[in-house]
Design a protein that fits this description.
Helices cover about 45% and strands about 15% of the residues.
């Protein structure tokens, strides 16, 4: 049976690594991006080179109309959806809470929390046996920041990811009897360009000495955990949050 997967924020970093590894594991992959179509198309070519179908979809997950369009395109292309990786996310420049604007907070929670919840809602509507589906798997991207709080850097990001942890647990238990498994992966310091978008391109290298394993992780190492949670090898795993953080 062909299995289809939507990866939000799939044009770079952990999302791109997940798309490639999932394709190698036999998944057809829809790659969502917001701005960089060329990067998304490059990932799609890598998926196709592995013998799987690839779909490239532009959309901002914080906008409900975009989310509805993403899932409608997946319906048309794949017919059924079997997996969702809620990977799209943002950080911002380091700031104290007493310096943060309402616009920053709305963007942070709009993409990192509301976007993930909207995508999960649409996935459950398609996957749940209660709604006529055949089951499926959702993997949410959290962060070790949810445990650490990120004081003086981005407490808003940490709070958003803590919300993802709680959302994962609640949704997993809500749909556990409906053939849908829901888990999260909580990466630590991972060497991707998300740090540059927060104004700290060298952050992974700078923070690495604080990690018990004395190095930053890679996008591929996080993707391995995500694809394991998507697959049959984790068939009795739901409502779990898996740390991939080098012991931090």
């Amino acid at each position: 049976m062909n299995r289809s997967l939507l990866v939000t924020g799939g044009s770079r970093g952990i999302g791109a690594a997940t798309a490639r590894l999932a394709a190698a594991a036999g998944w057809d992959v829809a790659i969502n991006y917001t701005r960089d179509e060329a990067a998304a198309q490059a990932v799609a070519q890598q998926v196709r080179a592995l013998g799987r179908r690839a779909l490239v979809l532009q959309g901002d997950v914080s906008r409900e109309t975009d989310v509805l369009a993403l899932f409608a395109e997946c319906d048309r292309a794949f017919g059924a959806l079997h997996g969702l990786v809620n990977n799209a996310g943002v950080v911002d420049v380091a700031q104290r809470v007493d310096e943060m604007s309402a616009d920053r907070l709305q963007r942070m929670f709009g993409i990192n929390v509301i976007g993930s919840m909207l995508c999960a809602r649409e996935a459950v509507r398609r996957m749940s046996t209660r709604r006529g589906g055949t089951g499926g798997v959702i993997v949410n991207l959290s962060s070790a920041a949810a445990r650490l709080g990120s004081p003086g850097q981005y407490v808003d990001y940490a709070a958003a990811k803590a919300a993802i942890d709680v959302f994962t647990l609640g949704l997993a238990r809500e749909v556990a009897a409906e053939g849908v498994r829901v888990n999260a992966v909580r990466p630590g310091i991972i060497d991707t360009d998300i740090h540059a978008s927060g104004g700290q391109p060298d952050r992974a290298r700078q923070v690495a000495p604080q990690v018990p394993m004395q190095r930053a992780g890679t996008a591929d190492e996080v993707a391995e955990a995500i694809v394991w949670l998507l697959g049959d090898a984790s068939s009795y795993t739901t409502a779990s949050v898996l740390d991939v953080s080098g012991g931090r």
